[in-house]
Amino acid sequence: MTLEKAVYEAQQAINYFFNNEFQKARDIMVPYANSSMYHSIGNAVFSFLEAILTFEHRHIKLASEALKKSMTVCDKYRKKNSFGKSLEKMVKKINYENYSEVEAHAELCYAESYLLKAVLTFMEDETLSSFIKAGLKIRLCYSCYRECHNILVNRNWDNSSTKPHFESGVRMGIGAFNLMISLLPSRVIKLLEFIGFSGNKVRFLSL
């Protein structure tokens, strides 16, 4: 399935979802949830929403499994870097032109899946270790979103029909992070900034 068709069908599913036609939305997402990143994350999002609305253990478990599957599917399409390439990224400027559209969207879908999985971790178990795990996941997710933003501004998107979808996802993700963190107490914000987070309500509104 092409990226354009996957995005189109994801839009269709969202329209059905907001028109309260939930089964029609799922019928679009489920058949390709194991192979298409947008179908996979769409199916996972529907399961996630059901979990947070019901707080039932069964739904939380199903959502967790769906998000794990989504991360696996998205990871297959992400740009693969060897150990040497990873070291090179630390000392040289990255050429984002090397990212294909599919790889760029895969990075975004992976970040979205990771964020929802982190939120779900808080619901699965309320122990201290789970909070730490969730915090680490959110930190990694934030890094993924920043990488997506770098792809957005540094890659040539001429004649790309999928750029608006990618851009809206990136801006929504980074904007949500900035808004949520900026609303925390100042002492907590200072601690988060120390480990790499930043929160700015003005920046959120500008995104």
TrEMBL record:
InterPro entries: IML2/TPR_39. This is Tetratricopeptide repeat protein 39B. It comes from Agrilus planipennis (Emerald ash borer). Pfam families: Iml2-TPR_39 (PF10300).
